[in-house]
Design a protein that fits this description.
Layout lengths: L2 H6 L22 H17 L5 H13 L8 H5 L2 H7 L4 H13 L5 H11 L8 H10 L6 H21 L8 H12 L5 H9 L4 H16 L23 H12 L5 H9 L15 H14 L1
Helix pairs in contact: 2-3, 2-6, 2-8, 2-9, 6-7, 6-8, 9-10, 9-11, 11-15, 12-13, 12-15
Length: 298
């Protein structure tokens, strides 16, 4: 059964699997997570949508069996009923340009487009449309606007897939696919567009907290002092323990009044904080905390 047919089944009946992709497209650490991240990028580039949990997990397994060589599975990934239904009427130039639009949010330059069209029409089996999508994705240069946009779209795609897996987001109909595609299309290199998209996901704040905040920040850093009997046990933030309970404490503090979000970030970065710097303003953790605050506030 193809992943697209899987998608038409009830997503909530699929077996849960570990999907700990983090926002901002940071590495997950495990091989399984790396494979999921690679497959997710191809869903964004080739289909213009987040992967559904069943399809993502299935293709990540295929990629693992191929020893991590995405080129070994890419053509099978690209040949699907979904591709035929959504893109089958496009000519070659439109298909390649669509990959640029879906992954990078812009049209291909004329020279590059002509070159890729020539490769696609050469008949060389190494230059299928899916393999071209892979090459375009792999060719994104770090530190560019393209790189920032890809990272932002991947963050939203990962959060969306996680929300589906957790039963917080519908993803079982053609209209659901269209809405997910439109969600990604609205994300560009500006972090604010990523945060807006994340805030629109059902249950996204809790999901984001579970995967990015609870263990790395609350448990490993804050709970050293901000617990009953701790040095900061008499402050407005006291964590009782447990993911859901800790989430509730932090969420309620953020929503306490208009000043608490900025206060929380100041304290974390060491301003007026007895515990000193916990998260430097340039750190990944600080950016994650800021994203979480925006999710809660919105």
């Amino acid at each position: 059964m193809t992943p697209y047919i899987h998608l038409r089944l009830s997503i909530r009946l699929m077996g849960r699997y570990l999907f700990l992709a983090v926002a901002l497209c940071l590495p997950i650490g495990s091989e399984a997570g790396v494979y999921e991240d690679q497959v997710q990028k191809m869903y964004v580039a080739y289909y213009g949508r987040p992967g559904d949990p069943g399809g993502l997990n299935w293709w990540a397994g295929k990629l693992e069996n191929a020893g991590g060589a995405l080129s070994e599975i890419i053509d099978n990934f690209g040949n699907s009923l979904e591709y035929v239904e959504r893109f089958g009427s496009m000519d070659n130039a439109a298909l390649i340009n669509n990959i640029f639009v879906q992954l990078l949010g812009r049209d291909a330059d004329t020279a590059g487009l002509d070159w890729y069209v020539g490769k696609l029409e050469s008949g060389d089996p190494d230059w299928s449309l899916a393999s071209i999508a892979l090459r375009i994705a792999d060719g994104v240069q770090e530190g560019t606007d393209d790189s920032a946009l890809v990272a932002n779209r991947m963050a939203v795609a990962n959060a969306f897939t996680l929300a589906v897996e957790n039963g917080e987001q519908n993803y079982s109909s053609d209209s659901d696919i269209l809405l997910a595609s439109q969600l990604l299309a609205g994300v560009d290199s500006d972090t604010a567009t990523m945060e807006l998209a994340l805030s629109s996901l059902s249950g996204s704040a809790l999901s984001y907290y579970q995967d990015n905040i609870d263990q790395d920040i609350v448990v490993n850093l804050c709970s050293v002092c901000h617990v009953e009997g701790g040095i900061a046990g008499n402050t407005r933030i006291v964590y009782p323990g447990g993911t859901d309970a800790n989430y509730g404490v932090l969420r309620d503090f953020i929503l306490l009044d208009s000043s608490t979000p900025a206060l929380l970030l100041d304290k974390a970065s060491g301003t007026g904080h007895g515990g000193g710097v916990q998260l430097s303003v340039s750190s990944d953790g600080y950016q994650k905390l800021s994203t979480f605050i925006n999710l809660v506030s919105n």
